[in-house]
Amino acid sequence: MYRHDSFDAAFLAERNRQFRDQVARRLDGSLTEEEFRPLRLMNGLYLQLHAYMLRVAIPYGTLNPAQMRKLAEVAERWDRGYGHFTTRQNIQFNWPRLIDVPDMLDALAEVGLHAIQTSGNTIRNVTADHFAGAAADEIEDPRPYAELIRQWSTDHPEFQFLPRKFKIAITGAPHDRAVTRAHDIGLRMVRRNGRPGFEVIVGGGLGRTPMIGQVIRDFLPVADLLPYLEAIVATYNLLGRRDNKYKARIKITLHENGIERMRDLVEARFAEIAPDFDPARTAAELAHIAAHFAPPSLPEAPEAPYHTARAADPVFRAWADTNLHAHRAPGYGIVTISLKAHGEVPGDATSARMRAVADLAERFGRGEIRVSHEQNLILPHVALGDLPAVHAALRRHGLAAANAGLLSDIIACPGMDYCALATARSIPVAQEIATHFERQRLEHDIGPLKIKISGCINACGHHHVGHIGILGLDRAGVETYQITLGGDGAEEATLGERTGPGFSAAEIVPAIERLLRAYLGLRRDRGETFLQTYRRLGPGPFKTALYERDRADAA
Amino acid sequence: MARPIPLQVVTANALVSGRVVWLTARGGWTACMAEAAVFDDPAQAKDALCRAEMQSDRVVGPYLARVRQSADSTEPAHFREAFRRDGPSAAARIPRQPPETD
To answer: What is the C-alpha separation between A440 and A356, in angstroms, rounded?
Structure first.
């Protein structure tokens, strides 16, 4: 994987030195909070409901075991022994003391991790398909491009004060696991005449005005990637609204100007600046970066232990059925380590579990770990024959939940349990749904299902693209949950439709159960997923299931 | 009928630890909401908030929060303030450390 060179290391050290000084000046009274706030946010330090929160970027969701162990150490030494993996492939520490943050950042810098541009109106952490470099359906590993974008966007002088935050996601596979259509820029690798390039999508985003991104360029040769991205962001930087925070994202700029005008402006800007980019230098840098992402050697290994365990152990078989995905190399698999054991906090990992995953990656996973936007961890390269041993180790650490892609594999934002912006809690709703359906033993029968929960309209929990989306609101001082149905974050990106009035905290789990029991009765057969059934029948029968009881009660 | 007088406390986050604190009657800060000064006079509450804002070397973002008072306790009027007092509802399974004060 990519290793920081001396330039990166010196840059990080200097930024951390500056921030240490800024913290000292805040503590001795030389800086007011108003002066200090933008400085701490530039370094990923928020103030949340109960404490400060440090958000650390995990570029394109890739970690090595040393980095994972460092996250474990930081959590243990300066926080409360756990971290929270987020939908933007970041990790958040929820309890740091201001005075300790400079030491935390220095510790993270030892392994090339940082919190730069994890906040503020800048280009944020570039996210990528969490199966990158391993997926069977991949055209090319997108991470060298993501790293190139990271280097280009980090401390980019023109883009430190954008109208609003700016998020880029990239995938190298036709099956979109990176929600590219819900990002300010989404990049999907495509091939034309044998050459790799990108379909460039712009203006997607969730939040209070959810929009699916539109294609601004259907084929961008890889050599033009940086000047074209720079042209988009520069156009947005000038055109984007600064008068209203809620209309400042590029999705609104696109909506107000139209895709044709945006495309014309971007192409004009691109023509202007492209000559300043040296394609030979970019190609050389890409080749240099790509060498760091050289695929690991995956020699043929005996598969027999896998087949033996499958036949003998139903627990192993159930786990392999859900948490194992097809690898490009025969005899290997991609393992999803669920951070959603029934009743636990989605995305939370204790230091002990982080170390356990680091050990497994080292022993069985070619030293690679991924963080998914779905708040799970991934071992991307595991020999099938090693899976029984991996599974046994995961069980010892409480990490063997067989639920990837199922009902309890819920995305949930931190919600009002942590977040200062939240209007209701998300985590307990996720926990209750998971434990309730576990007791009902319905999860495997229901099959593939994405439930996504946000605790406010900013939609960090991606509820608009959940097959079932849940949005927590404050209605007259009471937590109220609205349901959306039919959303999809994959390549056929669709925004869910609101069903109607919301439900109280006590009503939301029974409402979800009515919905899913209706699905079980309506589906053609076990092969038809919830989303397919919804698409076939529309919202009608599901709304009836949700609200009929209320009508019966009222009658 | 007269509208009930709103009862308010001043709350903030401590500068060094970030933890939730409330203003006490003596002008200090406490991590225990039961020890917070409760104002029934909106003008006094506003004064207290102004004084709290002067303490930017100790706290961040002070504001007034409504409470309800019974014979033996002070309760937040809104659930958000209850979470600030009680911590995350998932806390049971999280390794806890003793409460910190500045």
So the answer is: 31
